[in-house]
């Protein structure tokens, strides 16, 4: 109770003090507001700066990791290219060495072989000796033949002279000039004259008949001869040779007998073989002028509903699987896709995947 009384006495003082504190608070409100704004601004700024710092550090870490990944990948590509180039150079060097050794061996053994060349020269020398001896024998034979011809001509000439001067032969009454009575035996020419017959001069026949005034008309110029009569008789008659050819003409086979039953297949095989030998490009209908661009075939040539080539629709051997039902394969059984990857430094990787065949084609374009 005393406390209540005491508080009641201090009520005015408490009210006055509260009003004073309220007035002071009103007076200090702007300052406190400004101070609170500063504190909030500082806190928010520090929080934002710390967040931005965190974002920058995170971005730096991400960029560092990504750039490191790109650098390592680029370095791997460079290492692969360098290793491939080293392998190619190594293999080229080894291949060059193998080719050099093989070519040297082949040249030494078959082209410029010393021992074979030596044997060839020795055989050639022996052959030359044989040819020389044969030529010498042939020359001796030709000389003997020429000598016999000269002897025969001289003997013929002596015989002609002996026949020409046969009147100089000696007789039983009068000795000739080659049979002198003062010599023990006649000379050689005397024996030659005795062995031949005298030369007889043949009388020349007159080229023309002697002039006869009775047959003067026979010496007049003769008239020109009339042209010969044609062999073909007059009338509608055929030549006997034509009649003979028609009567005995050879047997003519029919087209079915003269040609082979498989002539069409043989002609096709011959045409394919000729095309395989003469063509320059394996795929005839794919252009090869632009190798850097991929060829995109037209729709009507690649579709299953396109037109057939000319001449294959009416051939009975073209549709061999006409009555065969094809097996439908699901996507789980057959898959095929193609991936193209462009790696830096001009490397173009092209991969075909399939459960039947796996084809990897790598094309390098080095700068």
Automatic annotation (TrEMBL):
UniProt keywords, alphabetically: Coiled coil
Coiled coil spans: 121-158
Bias (Pro residues) ranges: 224-233
KW 4Fe-4S (keyword) present: no
Region ranges (Disordered): 203-243
Matching PROSITE patterns: IQ
Protein name in UniProt: Spermatogenesis-associated protein 17
A Pfam cross-reference name: IQ
Gene3D superfamilies named among the record's database cross-references: 1.20.5.190
């Amino acid at each position: 109770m005393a406390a209540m009384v005491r508080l009641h006495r201090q009520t005015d003082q408490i009210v006055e003090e509260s009003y004073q504190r309220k007035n002071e608070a009103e007076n200090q409100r702007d300052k406190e507001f400004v101070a609170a704004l500063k504190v909030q601004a500082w806190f928010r700024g520090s929080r934002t700066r710390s967040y931005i710092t965190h974002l920058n550090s995170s971005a730096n870490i991400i960029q560092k990791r990504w750039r490191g990944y790109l650098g390592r990948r680029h370095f791997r590509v460079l290492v692969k290219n360098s290793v491939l180039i080293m392998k190619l150079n190594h293999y080229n060097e080894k291949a060059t060495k193998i080719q050099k050794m093989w070519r040297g061996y082949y040249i030494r053994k078959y082209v410029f072989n010393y021992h074979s060349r030596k044997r060839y020269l020795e055989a050639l020398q022996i052959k030359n000796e044989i040819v020389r001896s044969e030529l010498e024998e042939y020359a001796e034979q030709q000389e003997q033949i020429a000598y016999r011809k000269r002897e025969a001509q001289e003997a013929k000439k002596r015989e002609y002279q002996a026949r020409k001067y046969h009147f100089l032969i000696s007789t039983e009454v009068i000795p000739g000039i080659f049979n002198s009575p003062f010599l023990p035996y006649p000379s050689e020419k005397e024996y030659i004259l005795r062995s031949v017959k005298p030369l007889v001069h043949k009388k020349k026949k007159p080229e023309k008949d002697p002039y006869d005034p009775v047959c003067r008309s026979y010496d007049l110029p003769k008239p020109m001869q009339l042209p010969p009569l044609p062999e073909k008789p007059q009338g509608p008659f055929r030549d006997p040779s034509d009649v003979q050819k028609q009567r005995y003409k050879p047997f003519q086979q029919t087209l079915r007998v003269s040609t082979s039953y498989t002539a069409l297949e043989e002609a096709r095989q011959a045409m394919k073989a000729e095309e395989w030998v003469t063509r320059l490009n394996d795929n005839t209908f794919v252009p090869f002028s632009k190798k850097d661009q991929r060829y995109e075939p037209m729709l009507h040539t690649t579709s299953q509903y396109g037109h057939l080539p000319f001449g294959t629709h009416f051939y009975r051997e073209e549709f061999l699987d006409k009555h065969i039902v094809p097996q439908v394969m699901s996507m789980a059984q057959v898959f095929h896709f193609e991936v193209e990857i462009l790696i830096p430094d001009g490397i173009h990787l092209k991969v075909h995947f399939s459960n039947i065949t796996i084809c990897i084609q790598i094309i390098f374009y080095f700068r």
